[in-house]
Amino acid sequence: MAFLETDRGFFVPASQASDAYCDNPLSIGHNATISAPHMHAVCLNLLASHGLSKGNKFLDIGSGSGWLVAAVSHLVGEDGLSMGIEHVGELSTWSRKNIECASSILRSRLEKHHIILKTADGRAGEPSLGPWNAIHVGAASPQLPTALIDQLAPGGILICPVGVDEQNLVVARKGLDGSVEVENEMGVRYVPLTSLKKQTGWS
Predict the structure, then answer these.
(1) Which end of the chain has the least Cβ crowding within 10 Å, N or C?
(2) Lowest mean pLDDT among 12-21, 120-129, 190-199
């Protein structure tokens, strides 16, 4: 339901409106993309099947258009927190407008701080508001980011594309005893998780 309740049409640039519902990634500027709908569906299914639910805390690193932050807000509800961190200020501002326009429910959650959008380097996570029940990374890290695993609550899940030339969508689950189990979900192709300078300086 979270997927169907979050209209992708509000989260793509106006120039891409005719392709909003095509099953492929779309450029949102600044060398960033909004993932293809099937990848968003995969991530939502992983989160829901792991047990992400009302009252939980979710963190999206490289939140881009804000779509996944909005969708997960429907999973965690009014008592939960869905937060996005995006280091491109223009995208962070745009994602806020997208969420405000998408529905009155989402706009209310922004106003009440059940949805939070922050402009910052997400690679450091957000320990001040953790621990997190789930963390998603929207760009490929060269290796599994241990700083983010450290911010997971016991029983939490991290979803992150990992690799350079060959990438896998990696799922790391933290046990109640703090142990971490890691598995490769599927092969993927994401833009790299990098600094703002490198991202905006690409040719």
Answers:
(1) C
(2) 190-199
Total domain count for the chain? Answer: 1
| Catalytic residue, candidates 35, 63, 65, 82 | 35
What CA–CA distance (Å, rounded) separates 14 from 18?
A: 8
Q: What percent of the chain has pLDDT over 70?
A: 99
Sign of CA dihedral 38, 86, 200, 147: negative
Asked if residue 113 belongs to a domain, the reply is yes
Q: Phi and psi at residue 12, in whole multiples of 5°?
A: -120, 155
**Residue 108 known to be catalytic:** no
Look at residue 2 and tell me if it is in a domain: no
Would residue 1 count as lying in a domain? no
Q: What is the dihedral of CA 180, 183, 185, 189, to 10 degrees?
A: 90
Q: What is the mean pLDDT of residues 148-158?
A: 97
Q: Which domain holds residue 81?
A: 8-200
Task: Round to whole Å and give the CA distance between 134 and 48.
Answer: 10
The per-residue pLDDT for range 175-193, each reduced to its tens digit, is 999 999 999 999 999 988 8
In a domain, 32, yes or no: yes
Can you tell me which residue has the tokens 């990374």?
137
Side-chain half-sphere of 127: how many Cα atoms within 13 Å? 8
Span 26-59, pLDDT tens digits: 999 998 999 999 999 999 999 999 999 999 999 9
CATH code for the domain in which residue 14 is found:
3.40.50.150
